[in-house]
Amino acid sequence: MSKSEQGINTQRFQVIPRSLIFVTDQKKVLLLKGAAHKRLWANKYNGIGGHIEKGEDIYEGAARELKEESGLAADPLWLCGSIMIDAGETTGIHLFVFRGSYQGGALQPSNEGELEWVGFDQITDFPLVEDLKVILPEILKLNPGQMLYARYWYDDRDQLQIKLKLV
């Protein structure tokens, strides 16, 4: 198949690929408290992750982000979620969610924020990024091979709406 046969049409909805990684150790999950200077999610807890760069597949991008933001290599990571985010523009976000088990090693600080191990039963006590309140408990219940599929969009009042499907 040639490049021209890929059917690229810039008039269609396009997505920016991003990764979101959750590393677990027993009944704890590693979360990143966004640095106070960050434009997005300052002082909010989120998973580790970021953009998939040109030339990377989604696994390589997730592994790179995990290493850059935590110093960890959780190998293997497993794909456990696919989230399409429509923010009302012609370009949206496709978020690939991964899980991995802590394999040991020291956490390394980054300028993205502070890393913290949080007990599964304590998650709701933390100021989470808005969507994590809904998806993180579901993600932590998944076994390898199970998937969470979600679609996010914003209503007329600019409120985030989430539709989940677990398979």
Biggest β-sheet, characterized? 9 strands, mixed
Strand content: 35-45%
Outline: globular
Rg over CA atoms: 16 Å
**Total count of domains:** 1
Order of helices and strands: EEEEHEEEHEE
Helical stretch tally:
2
Task: Report how far the terminal alpha carbons are from each other.
Answer: 32 Å
Named CATH topology: Nucleoside Triphosphate Pyrophosphohydrolase
Q: CATH homologous superfamily?
A: Nucleoside Triphosphate Pyrophosphohydrolase
Mean pLDDT, rounded to whole units? 94
What is the number of E strands? 9
Q: Identify low-pLDDT runs.
A: none
Helicity range of the residues? Answer: 10-25%
- Under the CATH scheme, the architecture is Alpha-Beta Complex
Structural class per helix/strand content?
mainly beta
Describe this structure in words.
- With 167 residues, this protein is mainly beta.
- It has a single domain, classed as Alpha-Beta Complex (Nucleoside Triphosphate Pyrophosphohydrolase), CATH 3.90.79.
- The chain has 2 helices and 9 strands.
- Strands 1, 2, 3, 4, 5, 6, 7, 8 and 9 form a 9-stranded mixed beta sheet that branches.
- The radius of gyration is 16 Å and the shape is globular.
- It starts with 13 loop residues before the first strand and ends with a strand.
- The mean pLDDT is 94.
